[in-house]
Amino acid sequence: MRARRASSFGDEASAYARHRPDYPLAALEWGMSGANRPVRDVLDLAAGTGKLTEGLASLGRSVTAVEPDPGMLAELSRLLPDVPALPGKAEDIPLPDESVDAVFVGQALHWFDLAPAFAQIRRVLRPGGAVVALWNHDDESVPWVLEFARLVRTGISRGFADSEQPLRADGFGPFEQDRFAHTHRRSIDSLLATVATHSHLLVASEQDRERTLAQARAYLESVPETGTGEFDYPLVTTVLRARRG
Ligand SMILES: C[S@@+](CC[C@H](N)C(=O)[O-])C[C@H]1O[C@@H](n2cnc3c(N)ncnc32)[C@H](O)[C@@H]1O
């Protein structure tokens, strides 16, 4: 089931590219400042359609994208033709030893087989380089967001954000966590299209998927903040970073 969900994204690659949020640049900068070396070469691991890749490139970094799903990788190359994009998995990264200053992972670390993935991330990082994992999730301190998230069960994608079990990785210092406020300009249609790309709905039966989306639409139409056109959907970006020893 986990493998099916981890590989469920590609069929919906262009919907994914249109509807998933990007990441706040302050969160990317905080992640990079976890390295104690200048950050020039960056790997975006599990790059998907390039949401994070684009932010890293906009900060002037030389970014390489690695992604196992051919549909996602093709969409990334179409959107960001200048970024080197390689097929590959976290557990077998197709880059030379000590070739990057930071490895970024957007909304994907929880899919990895962690021990081999961290061994590979450590191998491709230069000494003092940083691994940075990010998750965008709903800002559930906002009451209507909390209720919407409960209806569509988006909480499932928080990954290791706020995990009670601190993340550890051999050969890395302790993980530090910070959070960044973020928003995503939405309409009811675009928000529901995003929810439809969440992995638990991609693998749900057609009937369950339609029922969940209809309930969510009825709720959003009844809420003053969302019922009358475009709105800023409140998100939090949680970032974990650790330095290679
Ligand atoms: C939720 S998407 C995130 C994509 C992108 N990083 C973003 O922030 O939009 C998760 C991605 O992880 C990829 N993935 C799943 N398992 C992986 C693995 N073991 N190694 C590398 N990538 C993996 C999927 O193919 C998918 O593109």
Automatic annotation (TrEMBL):
<keyword id="KW-0489">Methyltransferase</keyword>
<dbReference type="InterPro" id="IPR051052">
    <property type="entry name" value="Diverse_substrate_MTase"/>
</dbReference>
<dbReference type="InterPro" id="IPR013216">
    <property type="entry name" value="Methyltransf_11"/>
</dbReference>
<dbReference type="GO" id="GO:0032259">
    <property type="term" value="P:methylation"/>
</dbReference>
<dbReference type="Pfam" id="PF08241">
    <property type="entry name" value="Methyltransf_11"/>
</dbReference>
<keyword id="KW-0808">Transferase</keyword>
<dbReference type="InterPro" id="IPR029063">
    <property type="entry name" value="SAM-dependent_MTases_sf"/>
</dbReference>
<comment type="similarity">
    <text>Belongs to the methyltransferase superfamily.</text>
</comment>
<feature type="domain" description="Methyltransferase type 11">
    <location>
        <begin position="43"/>
        <end position="132"/>
    </location>
</feature>
<dbReference type="GO" id="GO:0008168">
    <property type="term" value="F:methyltransferase activity"/>
</dbReference>
<protein>
    <submittedName>
        <fullName>Class I SAM-dependent methyltransferase</fullName>
    </submittedName>
</protein>
